[in-house]
Each structure stands twice: as structure tokens, then as C-alpha cells.
Design goal:
This protein is α/β, with parallel strands linked by helices and 358 residues long. The protein has nine helices and 17 strands. Strand 9 and strand 10 form a beta hairpin. It binds nicotinamide-adenine-dinucleotide. Nicotinamide-adenine-dinucleotide binds next to loops.
Length: 358
């Protein structure tokens, strides 16, 4: 297989796992890295033997680069992706697609108008855990899915994160930070969401770091959402930074003839558990697919292969835009006391081949 050249913008925390995993993918080569902080770019280039450490401008101007991997902070995802598209590059961006709905829409539409691809995280749904769940649903193990529950409950990030402030500013919060994992998993198992509603609250006006520094909270930190799928199924999704402990599952899908317990969608592996209506206990289901360890980057590898093979890619902009619109829709519904109808639709991405090797 020929290889596409990838230029990385953003050499922070998450870049390490991408640079590690991308060394092994047959469809791409990490050709250049860049960051506003050139020391970070040079350090990553050296550590991973990347040929070029560029400024962002140099990277965008290099015609050898086919795909920009945008690993910058959420606040500039939209802007950096648009610059890359204007420079004629395909783009794969960390989550979320953008902060505002308008920027997300602009990125998706610009790519389509230019005949370029946009893909985006999360790609955990391509891991063995959720691929197994999708296969069980498709093969009818729980019958028609009629409902689902999904919970991300935490006490926030200030106790452990070195730079927690942005989590409590616009674009942060539990929904925008963790919602993409839960929503992507739900959509890839259950399809398009047609409308959402919900309530969002700010339980504490400020948070406190372990050193006693106070952080003002500008966004809701407990969001209870309700999703109506086109299929007729209904799901609840709660994301919270306001819980000191809970006994809730991550995701459960309730079908006409059984229940599926879905693993943490922020991971690639299991366990996957299943219970038929006549059974009293859940039992573990062996995983049908590979990529069960931290495989961040397989969505990018699938997109690179899709460009080479001229086929649709799985972690695509219809999916990432649908996720962004649902997250905004729940907040809008809460503010305005109504249901929010979604404009976007998605095709559920095709299952990977069980023996797939990127
Ligand atoms: N850290 C994690 O565990 C984690 C996990 C999953 C997803 N993510 C996502 O990955 C993305 C990056 O997160 P991170 O933790 O690596 O953040 P980070 O702050 O460690 O790194 C971001 C990097 O982007 C650079 N940058 C910012 N604006 C830029 C610009 N305009 N041009 C070029 N470089 C720019 C910064 O200098 C920094 O080096 C976020 O979208 C985050 O949601 C992070």
C-alpha cells in the first residue's frame, strides 16, 4: 500500500500516543511535526525520528503533506482545521470537531466543497470492545434496541490536572470533554439522533485546586440529556463533574430480547457483557475484533486508507458534527426549555473486518 504523508500540528500530551501508534500503520508516514512552541516540535521530531520540525506556516506550505493531524487545544480546532483545508490538506482532528456549532459546520462544509476529507476523534469505537458491541447489535443478539443509558460521572479535574482552568470555561465541561466518547459509541450502535432535550446546571460557582487556588466556573457541570433516535429508541446521557462516587454503568443498551453492557467508551477494549431476556445473570462475551489496547490513531489510519482506496472513512465529519450538534443541542434545549431538532444525519460506519490490520 502507498503511504500518505501526515503533518502533526500540536505536540502536547496526546501527541505521544499518536506518534507511537502511527509508526506501525501501513497507510501513513508521520512526515512533519509543528507547534506554536518550537521546542516541543523539535523534541517530538527527535524522539520519534520525524523528518521535519516545522512552524505551522512551513507545515501548511509543504506540498508533500497530504493530511494534517490537528492535535491542538479545542479552542483552536476549528481555526487550525480550516487553515489546513485552505492549504489543500485533508484533516483529522482530536475531539471536539470545533467549539462552536458554526465553526464545526464550516469545517465540514469547506472540506466537502474542496473535495477533501475531514475525520476526527474519538476512534475508540473502532477498538475491539465497541466493534464487538456493534456486531452483537447488528447480528440481532438483543433484538431491536429500544433504549439506552449512558453515564459519565466524576468529581471534575482540578484534583489531578496540572492546568484545569479551561475545563471550567466555554468549550469545557463534562459534556464537551467526555460526551464525544459516549455519543460516538451510542450513534455507531444505534444510528442517527433526531432530537434532544435536557437540563444543565452549575452546582458550584468555583472549584478549588489542591493548593487552594480558586477556579471560577463559567459552564454547566452536570448535564442530563435525553436523546430520541430516528429508530424510535430513547437514550439518557448524564455527564457530570459534580459526583463524589456512583455505582452506575458506563453504557447499557436495552433491546427487545436482551441487554448489552458496553465497556468504557474512552477505552478500546472490553469487557462486553450480555444478558438474554430468559437469563438471570450477565455473562462476558469474547471480543470479536482486535485493537483492544490504546490504539488512538486507527481512525486516522482508516481515513488514510480510504483516500488511497477511494471509499468512505469511518470516523468522518458527519459523525463528529452529529456529536457536536447533540452536545450543543442539549445545552440549547436546557436554556430554552424545549426539544432541539438535529439537522445532521449519519450513516452508521461499516464494521471493520475482524482480522483488520492497519
Ligand atoms: N491529554 C489527553 O489525555 C487527551 C485525551 C484525549 C483527547 N485529548 C484531546 O487532544 C487535544 C490536545 O490535548 P492535549 O492534552 O495534548 O493538550 P496540550 O495542551 O498538552 O497540547 C496542545 C498543544 O497544542 C499547541 N497549540 C495550541 N494552539 C496551537 C496553534 N494554534 N498552532 C499550533 N500549536 C498549537 C500547544 O502549544 C500544545 O503544545 C484536545 O483536543 C484534547 O481534547 C487529550
Amino acid at each position: 500500500m502507498s503511504k500518505l504523508k501526515v503533518g502533526v500540528i500540536g505536540c502536547g500530551n496526546i501527541s505521544t500516543i499518536y506518534l507511537t501508534n502511527c509508526q506501525h500503520f501501513q497507510s501513513l508516514e508521520i512526515y512533519a511535526v509543528s507547534d506554536l512552541d518550537m521546542d516541543k516540535a523539535r523534541a517530538k521530531a527527535e524522539e520519534f525520528s520525524v523528518p521535519k520540525a516545522y512552524t505551522v506556516e512551513e507545515l501548511l506550505a509543504d506540498e508533500a503533506i497530504d493530511i494534517v493531524l490537528n492535535l491542538t487545544i479545542p479552542a483552536v480546532h476549528g481555526e487550525v482545521s480550516l487553515q489546513a483545508l485552505e492549504a489543500g490538506k485533508h484533516v483529522y482532528v482530536e475531539k471536539p470537531l470545533a467549539i462552536s456549532l458554526e465553526d464545526g459546520r464550516k469545517v465540514a462544509e469547506t472540506a466537502k466543497a474542496k473535495g477533501l476529507k475531514v475525520g476526527g476523534a474519538p476512534d475508540t469505537f473502532l477498538g475491539g470492545g465497541i466493534q464487538t458491541c456493534i456486531k452483537l447489535v447488528e447480528d440481532g443478539w438483543i433484538g431491536r434496541p429500544v433504549a439506552a443509558n449512558a453515564f459519565f460521572m466524576s468529581s471534575g479535574v482540578e484534583a489531578w490536572h496540572p492546568n484545569p482552568d479551561f475545563f471550567y470555561q466555554v468549550g469545557g465541561g463534562p459534556m464537551f470533554d467526555m460526551g464525544p466518547y459516549y455519543l460516538t459509541a451510542l450513534i455507531t450502535m444505534m444510528g442517527t439522533v433526531k432530537r434532544v432535550t435536557g437540563s444543565a446546571s452549575t452546582s458550584f460557582e468555583e472549584r478549588e485546586t489542591p493548593t487552594g487556588r480558586k477556579i471560577p466556573v463559567a459552564i454547566p457541570t452536570h448535564i442530563a440529556g435525553v436523546l430520541d433516535f430516528e429508530s424510535g429508541a430513547v437514550a439518557s446521557l448524564v455527564t457530570s463533574f459534580d459526583s463524589w462516587g456512583n455505582n452506575l454503568p458506563r453504557i447499557e443498551i436495552y433491546g427487545e430480547t436482551g441487554t448489552l453492557s458496553v465497556p468504557d467508551p474512552n477505552t478500546f477494549g472490553g469487557p462486553v457483557k450480555f444478558r438474554r431476556k430468559e437469563e438471570k445473570e450477565f455473562h462476558d462475551v469474547p471480543l470479536t475484533h482486535g485493537y483492544t489496547e490504546n490504539s488512538r490513531g486507527i481512525g486516522l489510519a482508516d481515513m488514510a486508507e480510504s483516500i488511497i482506496e477511494d471509499r468512505p472513512h469511518r470516523a468522518n465529519s458527519d459523525l463528529t458534527f452529529h456529536v457536536l450538534e447533540i452536545m450543543h443541542g442539549i445545552h440549547i434545549a436546557s436554556n430554552e426549555g424545549r426539544h432541539y431538532p438535529l439537522e445532521g444525519t449519519v450513516q452508521r460506519p461499516e464494521l471493520l473486518d475482524m482480522h483488520k490490520k492497519f
